[in-house]
Amino acid sequence: MTDDEHETTADPTGDEPAVSDGGTASDGGSIVDDDFPADGVPDTPHGDDHGLPPTHSIRRWFVTTNHKDIGLLYTVTALFFLIFGGLLALLMRLELWAPGADFLAAGSYNQAVSAHGLIMVFWFLSPLAFGFANYVVPLQIGAKDLAFPRLNALSYWLYLFSGILMGISFFQGSTFNGGWTMYAPLNMPVYTPDIGGTTTVLALILFVASATVGSVNFLTTMHRMRAEGMTLRRMPIFTWSILLTVWMMLFAFAALLAALMLLSSDRLIGTAYFAESSPGGAMLWAHLFWFFGHPEVYIVFFPALGAMAEIFQTFTGRRLVGRKWFIGAMLLVAIQSFVVWMHHMFLTSINLEIKTLFMATTIGISLPFDLMVFSLIYTMLKGKIRFKTPFLFGFGALVLFILGGITGVFLGAVVLDYTLRGTYWVVAHFHYVMVGGVTGLVGGLYYWFPKMTGRMYDETLGKVHFGMYFVGFNLLYFPMFLAWETPRRVFEYAPALTGWHQLSTVGAFLLGSSFLVMFYNLFKSAFVGEQVEGQPWDFASTAEWTVPSPPPLENFPGVPTYASGRLEFEDGGSAQTDGGAVHGKAAALPGSEVTETEHGGGESHASIWPFVLGAGAFLVLLGLSGLQRGYFPEGTMGGVHIGTAIVGGVLAFGSLVAMTREKFHGPEGPFGESWPFTTVENTKLGLWIFLASDVILFGAFIGAYVFSRVAHGWTDWHHLIPEAHVVLPGLINTYLLLTSSFAVVIAMEFAKRENRLGVVGSLVATVGLGVGFLINKGIEWQHLFHIHTEAFPAGWDPGTNIASTTFYVTTGLHALHVIVGLVIAGYMIFRAWGGAYMGDDEPIEYFGLYWHFVDIVWLFLFPLFYIV
Amino acid sequence: MHGGLLLQVAGQLEPDGNRAELFGTIFEVFLVLGTAVGVVVIGYMLYNAYRYRDDGTAPAEETEDIGRPTLGELPEGGGHGRKLLLSFTLSAIIVISLILWTYWALLYVEAGAAQPAEPEMEDGTTVDVTGYQFGWQFEYPNGNTTDGTMYVPEGERVRIVVTSSDVMHNFGIPAFKTKTDAIPGQTTSTWFGPVEDGEYTIKCYELCGAGHSYMTGTVEVIDAEEYERMFVEPMNSTNASDGGTERVDPATAAGGSSAPSVGLPADGGVATRLPARTAATEGVLRA
Ligand code: HEM
Ligand SMILES: [Cu+2]
Ligand SMILES: [Cu+2]
């Protein structure tokens, strides 16, 4: 991650102007009001694509870093996963046609249940939303691209490869079959021994990596690169929903990452976090998972809500009622989503006080949704409502969401939840809300389809799709409320309920086939549909509709600004030859020294390395999946696993190096509005945001330690630790790390004074001290591994007990951070030797940020693991 | 309209109320109100969607200053703010009061679960339940154990203390509307009853492996005195044929109607061994 911070360091010397031809902006005579150049102006000429191959070339899709291309890739890939997850669902529905395992074997049913949930939530729903976010958000805020275009491509490739890894897991014995919630200790290799189970966990890790990279990128972009006048409060509602989504993602996914890392440590090297032998193991997983899991339900729902709000505004021809309140409600939900997780654990051993508290927060979080629902409804008043396909889906989504919300209130009443939990009531409830969200996104797909393809879908087929979809949906899920006494995740149910389940299965096939209509419609229309201009919808107001469909590579015919209260494009002061309505503004953007020519061009749009890096990471994890209890399987299979991991490692490392060396210039900003980060440069902000998620990661690791220790008995814990575990090595390491941090500060000083040897010398000192830290730790570990005492005859290794597990894994995660830091520092020594950083201490400062962070973490770990 | 129901629930909150009835009443109130709210809200939506449809003619209001969104404007909100806050407040009041009202029922249920596990509890008994892949084991106040079938005394309240010996399960008896997690290394407790004579099904409500769907059991309600003799009074020759045997057949020992097998602690101590996985589920495991 930190290696990528050089994203924008290449010199912005590009001299190609972004405004392809001066005529574009002034074609219509004036750029005011509804008369945007989009109408009838041809796309950017081909000469202007910055080395990016044309769209019909396969190569383009491997090298592109442009947000619109990535958006398309996300959308199409997500739809593939919809088919994947959907087929699994149909298999389940066939099995449920009658009670008993007459179609799938029990094990296969559990695989289908688990994989369906994981695929739909992770690989379909969020990525579909991110397809739109990628495409639309930069356009809506007036940015040419995301802040780190290559990282954006990397997000996509990590996503795709994680999905492929998930698919492969089916062929490694069995994919994970313990449910999408992956409860402990069923998730331990003792109970789910297949390699495929491990692969699923690793695939999720790769997905989380993708999500984290994406969140950092979106947050930096949205906070730093808004057009002048586009303050946070004025952002379009879809953009708002994405902003809050990515903030939630940043923190929630860090918690999930922690859970998954602990789990894979258990599965790969045989540690004991979630084993039965750890008294708090089962609850630890539940807490970690739901701390992520509840925000996740809003993470998947918010983008749909945003899309619905845009659709309502456009197709009713009314502005969103209570927009301020709507945004406030979303903000409240986003924050509160982190304090409701225990409502998924009402039947566990948590006590009444806590239950009461979480009941209160749960009701609290449902109220803002009431407000949003009413806001959407009232937006219709005095409207000019056109029942085009996007509106039908948006409207349908609202109906479904209302039903899902009402049935959620049942679950919020704890007494009722005691009975409804673990039944089809829950299944029906969350499908109404989540698939209700899908409905909204399908509306979004129709809504933005003309923007993304430049062609209109077939309206009749769209309506047919909606009809089949809506009937199919309710036929599928409503009977589940009636058959609620069926336990979740079983294929045995009371014969009296057979009728409802059969209705449901019929509905499932109707719903499934409605998507065939959609695929046919969209596929055909993408090639032969009626061509559209910039703005096919009356009353659409957001910026994506002011540019041609699809928009040119760099989006706008000039620098977008809302300074006058309406969108206008500045032409860098030169091209506004006619149609005096184009205000030639001086580059008086606050906090910006970027001149117009720099805005003008030179942005890069192509790099193969994100793809290679994704492939490398994929191979590493595929190779590692073979590990169990620290050993690869015997024989050729083991060799294949090790070989795969090594090849992947080389590819990944090579592409990281290549990426830092590549001359790549992304848009930098600020372009007008960057509150509250006006003075923080993009890379620095990105790094800060990343570290924020890292704080959560470490926090979760430390939390896991404290939780396990409390469950075991805080002082009893000492019996799990050998005498040989002493304070001294930890103390020495504290000194080593603190001094190394100091050395980085000195390196920065030397860089300011342009003293090359000084920089090299102090960086070498940093690395030396860091290596000393690792060596010292290595000696300590070796010693502990091989002690022979009465209590620990076979040594004290990571798998010995829960105390050794928490010790090695938590400090091990820290050691990994040290190693990454050392690799970066090594690279910087190499560059510094060549004369880099003279008078430019920024890269050293960024590295220092990271290094100090790693240092501070150690200051927490040391007392926790050596003293108390 | 709901007054009757409310009174009815208040009645159910008496200490010997039955959980199934309690659930039934609250659920009913929620259903009625939920349906009403759903019908009103969705009806209102449909009505407005129809009323303000674009039929090609400019509606009369169009002459007023409607203020339609225009391309390239900075987003802003529409009117109707007062209406919005009003309906929001209304819905908030409904939801909050509904949930607060059920809170008393929750306290009642929780109080039952928290009662101490006294075997000589005046009216009622405590059974320890252990889930395993894929079945249930029950241990009674006198240390006797049964597997697969849970015996409970007719007309009394039963408190259950549940745990698991392997993965997580969830112990539920749908007929009694009772359910609680079975977590390895921890116990949870809840209660049900008083129950009427009969046989009821136990189900597992948490995915626990390949045999999950088949992880059922039976509750058999037996005569309170018989229960007392078999499962509460300390073991002696009346409820065990002889100190050496591990299994006793209540059908012969106590003249019951069925023939369950009861595991006795060989040494009068507490039986803790779990039966090995039965052959029936063994096949399922690898399926
Ligand atoms: C409107 C207010 C809502 C309330 C009061 C509510 C309440 C609840 C409660 C209490 C549960 C736990 C049920 C149980 O496991 O016993 C639950 C489950 C769930 N809810 Fe909601 N919910 C609401 C909205 C949503 C939304 C917006 C989403 C997603 C977009 C959602 C998705 C889910 C999911 C996925 C589960 C099941 C998780 C699982 O066990 O697999 N809910 N809901
Ligand atoms: Cu939740
Ligand atoms: Cu189960």
Provide a quick synopsis of the model.
Chain A is mainly alpha-helical.
Question: What is the CATH superfamily label of the largest domain in chain B?
Answer: Cupredoxins -  blue copper proteins
Whole-number mean pLDDT of chain B:
76
Globally, the shape of chain A reads globular
Low-pLDDT sequence parts of chain B: 1-16, 117-121, 237-259, 266-287
The CATH topology of the largest domain in chain B is what? Immunoglobulin-like
Span between N and C termini of chain A? 33 Å
What CATH architecture of the largest domain in chain B do you see?
Sandwich
Overall description:
The complex is a heterodimer of chains A (868) and B (287). With 868 residues, chain A is mostly helical. Chain A folds into two domains: 65-528, Cytochrome c oxidase-like, subunit I domain (Cytochrome C Oxidase, Chain A, Up-down Bundle), CATH 1.20.210.10; 716-868, Cytochrome c oxidase, subunit III, four-helix bundle (Four Helix Bundle (Hemerythrin (Met), subunit A)), CATH 1.20.120. Chain A is built from 23 helices and four strands. In chain A, helix 3 packs antiparallel against helix 15 and helix 13 packs antiparallel against helix 14 (459-482). The two termini of chain A are 33 Å apart. Residues 1-35, 37-48 and 573-600 of chain A have low confidence and may be disordered. Chain B has 287 residues and is an alpha+beta fold. Chain B is 34% helix and 21% strand. Chain B has helices spanning 3-12, 19-51, 81-114, 224-232, 250-254, 279-285; strands at residues 125-132, 135-139, 145-147, 149-153, 158-164, 169-173, 178-182, 188-192, 198-204, 216-222, 247-248, 262-263. In chain B, strands 8-5-1-2-3-12-11 form a seven-stranded mixed beta sheet. A five-stranded mixed beta sheet of chain B has the order 4-10-9-6-7. In chain B, strand 1 and strand 2 (135-139) form a beta hairpin. Chain B is elongated. Chain B starts with a helix and ends with a helix. At the A-B interface, helix 4, helix 8, helix 9, helix 10 and helix 11 of A face helix 2, helix 3 and strand 7 of B.
